[in-house]
Design brief:
disordered N terminus; elongated; 128 residues; mainly alpha
């Protein structure tokens, strides 16, 4: 009877280890999906920004709105990823958006290229 108890305990431990492994894998997949979703949203925001910039004389507010949307998406993403490359890409994009917003606030024409470059890098690191 003692041998059956040890066998059951071994099976239970193995099952528990498998569950932890699967949970960890699911967390990684979930984080990757969140990152991919963010990259898709940011790409759409950058497209809107490019459209707004090409018509900036008609509606400078559209460019500001697009930057605000990128900023909101980055805030919503927050610290969902513990991947160093993703974190750096998000930080770089946040800095580029902040710089463009500050230039606009000063009445200067912002350089939007860093926003596009940083968004491209985020897309690269979020693509499996």
């Amino acid at each position: 009877m003692g041998k059956k108890l040890w066998t059951r305990a071994g099976v239970a431990l193995a099952a528990g280890a498998a569950a932890v492994t699967l949970t960890g894998a699911c967390d990684a997949v979930s984080k990757a999906m969140d990152c991919g979703r963010l990259a898709t949203e940011i790409a759409a925001d950058v497209d809107r920004l490019q459209e707004a910039v090409s018509g900036a004389d008609e509606s400078p507010q559209a460019a500001a709105d697009a930057l605000d949307e990128i900023d909101r998406n980055l805030d919503d993403f927050g610290d969902k990823s513990d991947n160093a490359d993703v974190g750096k890409a998000v930080d770089d994009l946040q800095q580029a958006v902040d710089n463009a917003q500050q230039a606009a606030d000063r009445g200067e024409v912002p350089d939007f290229r860093p926003v596009g470059n940083a968004a491209g890098e985020l897309t690269n690191v979020c693509t499996p």
